[in-house]
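Much of our argument rests on the idea that a fold can be written as discrete symbols. In the encoding step, the backbone of a single protein was reduced to a row of integers, each denoting a local shape. This step matters because it turns folding into a mapping between discrete strings. For completeness, the protein is quoted in full, as a sequence line and a line of structure tokens:
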Amino acid sequence: MTAKRRMGAKVRSLRRREGLTQQQFAQRLDISTSYLNLIENDRRPLTANVLIRLAGRFQVDLEHFSGESEAALTRELHEVLGDPFFEENGLNSADVQRLVGTTPEVGRALVRLYREHVRLQDSVANLAARVVDGAELPEVSRARLPTELVNEFIQSRLNYFPPLEQGAARLWRDAQLAPDTLSVRLVQHLEQAHGVMVTVMSAQQMKGLLRRYDPERQHLMLSEQLPAASRRFQLALQAGLLLMSDELDALVDESPLRGQDARTLLRVSLANYFAGATLMPYDRFIESAESLRYDLGILQSRFQASFEQVCHRLTTLRRPGASGVPLHFIRIDLAGNISKRFSASGIQFARFGSGCARWNVYAALNAPGHIRRQISTMPDGTTYFCIAMAYRQSGGGYHDSTATRAIGLGCTLEHAPRLVYADGINLEQDGVPIGVSCRVCAHRRCPQRAFPSLYEPIQMSENVRGRSFFSRDPESGR
């Protein structure tokens, strides 16, 4: 279904919402009734002039008519309908496309209804636990966790916040920062501009903490266990919390978040963004990234930053007219938990369940320190170029457990030549079939399928066993 075809349904839906006839609606738009009829029936395109009139005269956000908003709703509906709760309905990808194309409001209502369903399920589970165990457990909703709410807001802004970029540039100018003396100058700035004393403390004194700020004594304490890159990051973070307090509050107020936990988490996340922008100034960083073709190792050395800091910063290069490769970002742990995610490439991540085991970010956990490359194809046919590397957190003592995580970055195949990691790879080859998760993946013969697909009915045979319990028989198609 093309973007042009979807426009007619959207225009018709807007007209009906306003309670207007075609003649009345056409008069408001300064077009003929017959032309409006052709638009609503997808026999004429929605021109830019008519679109602007729609937005101005009916107070409609132009994003309502963008393909990106429909793509996001389609991805979310696919995952929602992947829940076993909908298994008996026999819905497939074509059904989702029709729903989004004709009545997107119904699709959004379905997503909201599902989230409420999940919340009520969790409420019942918590209540049952209190009844059985007699424990006072907090009520938690997976669908509306603060982390999810914050992630939705950051995704809606494409992980780009101009006020924080401007603030970081202002800090470099006012504090006379320089790459080779960044830590020293940040310490001096905190003391001279904010009266904050910075002290590096022993691990015993910090009692397991890596950073502590005492606002009454204006004392920032950093653990000796922090690596140099992390220490610079914490200094920049503290500078951001003090220097950009009003801007951080304004951004939080602009968000739809109302719960205190979510608002606090968003404020800290934005302060982290500021710290990354300070360590890796936009203009210098994007120039380096493009000239080095996104070589993560050299970028780490040039900006004295960690692997994760560089990967994060690459996802924020979205300034209009000076943007980088639109990348997606995912961070997982040894259990496969997705602790951070962002998608500028358009790829969809699992939100209500586990991810796809065939994705290279999971394989990277087997060999920390080694870059894994993969051409990955989603069920809708979109192909991505993905890189992933696992790493171990350093700085802990002998008795401290070491956390191993993996980060995956990627882009659509058209942008792959801009990355040094695509060198030597035949980008014309077939990609590894991957999905969002088993429940919403239509790849029939996946050797690592753990659950049957929503879109493929279970057709088991006692006489056939594939590499996976739910994989299909190549001869029979089952």
The first strand starts at residue 197 and ends at 201. The CA atoms of residues 460 and 478 lie 7 Å apart.
